[in-house]
TrEMBL record:
Name of the featured protein: MEMO1 family protein MMIC_P2050
InterPro entries the record matches: MEMO1_fam (IPR002737)
Lineage, broadest ranks: Bacteria, Pseudomonadati, Pseudomonadota, Candidatius Mariprofundia, Mariprofundales
UniProt similarity note: Belongs to the MEMO1 family.
NCBIfam families per UniProt: AmmeMemoSam_B
């Protein structure tokens, strides 16, 4: 069995299982207490940040609190490539991903189907040290049980191509779509809030595409917006803050949002 080991444990998140579990459980509990999961409901898709947990972990927890202990058994995960430039969308060649909390099996059947689609390739190098996908895994391991994963690293590709893959692998109520993305990078605190507020409004309204200056995961976000328009889905902001609100200074901040995308009901019900 081929394993993709944890690459950023001890850097982006704790590398000891007990400490990692405690952080996630505490963050999810804080999010549940703040929002009321039963009021928000379970999203079909979430947009979630991917910085170090001390910066963006609490914001991520708001998305994962909304899917905790649901019937989800399959996760379609999109994250932007930060380490290796390539064209298209990359799947790994391994059988499982590993974190300090254990292993997650990959959905080989769905991955084989995805490889039949345009712009999808196998590229282990793209996955080897990519943090945008990995930092989501411990949250998924804590809030869901026995999931299978389809991890797609998104390189240089048009949103329409990503939307085609997303639609093909969309699945039913047992499938969650996770889009990993931070928002603006390295602006002063108030400027960042203004930029991010506009970006969030755009996503919630499904009116226009984001640029990569607004969100590093803009390609997959724009693909989700396309599908959300077609399916008449509603989107809701679950949490927003930036690194100046958490563990960083306010001179150069990175923005983080968790957004839920709802298929079967209004996000405000």
């Amino acid at each position: 069995m081929s394993v993709r080991p944890a690459a950023v444990a001890g850097m982006f998140y704790p590398d000891h299982a007990d400490e990692l579990s405690q952080f996630i459980n505490n963050s999810v509990a804080t999010a549940e207490n703040a929002t009321g999961k039963l009021i928000i409901g379970c999203p079909k898709a979430v947009i979630v940040p991917h910085a170090g947990y001390i910066y963006s972990g609490l914001t991520a927890a708001f998305a994962y609190a909304a899917v905790k202990s649901t019937a989800i058994r399959r996760v379609l995960l999109f994250g932007p490539a930060h380490r290796v430039p390539f064209y298209g969308m990359a799947l790994p060649e391994c059988d499982v991903f590993e974190t300090p909390l254990g292993r997650i099996e990959l959905d080989q059947e769905s991955m084989t189907a995805a490889l039949e689609l345009p712009h999808v390739c196998l590229n282990d190098q793209a996955h080897a040290r990519e943090h945008s996908l990995e930092v989501q895994l411990p949250f998924l391991q804590i809030v869901l049980n026995d999931i299978q994963l389809i991890p797609l690293c998104v390189g240089m590709v048009e949103p329409e191509a990503v939307a085609e893959v997303m639609s093909a692998l969309w699945g039913g109520d047992d499938t969650l779509v996770v889009i990993s993305s931070d928002l603006s990078h390295f602006h002063a605190y108030q400027e960042a809030r203004a930029i991010d507020e506009k970006s969030i409004e755009t996503v919630l309204a499904k009116t226009d595409d984001l640029s990569h200056d607004q969100a590093c995961g803009a390609t997959a976000i724009n693909a989700l917006q396309q599908i959300a328009r077609e399916k008449h889905m509603s989107l809701k902001l679950l949490d927003y803050r930036n690194s100046g609100d958490t563990a960083g200074d306010k001179d150069r901040v990175v923005g983080y949002a968790s957004i839920g995308c709802y298929e079967h009901r209004s996000a405000h019900e």
